[in-house]
Amino acid sequence: MLKLIKVFNSNTNGYWYIPENRDPGLIEIDEVTGEVTIALESSYDQELGYPYFASIARGKVKQMWDQQDLPDEKFFAWG
Questions:
Q1: What is the pTM of this model?
Q2: Which portions of the chain are predicted below pLDDT 70?
Q3: φ, ψ for residue 54 (rounded to 5)?
Q4: What is the pLDDT of residue 9?
Q5: Strand 36-40 to strand 25-29: parallel, antiparallel, or no bridges (unpaired)?
């Protein structure tokens, strides 16, 4: 499960990602180049030892950016 929440009240354009209802990480979008980067890994990704949820979040945000569909919140579940 992954929840994306758009960053407001900041110079940063991007999304907070919340994996499995744990502490969030941050995905940033460079509006000029369209590059999407992992700015801050969640504590859960750090516990896992690799950016599993950060990579999924980055991919989803990149898809949304490419489609110019940037909602305030988005939820993903798989199983």
A1: 0.94
A2: none
A3: -60, -40
A4: 87
A5: antiparallel
The neighbour count for residue 33, using CB atoms within 10 Å, is: 7
Using CA atoms, how far apart are residues 15 and 65, in angstroms rounded to an integer?
A: 11
Identify the pLDDT of residue 12. Answer: 87
Residues 6 or more apart whose CB falls under 8 angstroms from that of 42 comprise 17, 18, 19, 22, 23, 24, 25, 53, 54
User: In whole angstroms, what separates CA 26 from the centre of its chain?
Assistant: 6
Q: Which two tokens stand for residue 44?
A: 């859960």
Tokens of 19: 């994996």
The pLDDT of residue 58 is: 98
Cβ neighbour number for residue 30 with a 10 Å cutoff? 12
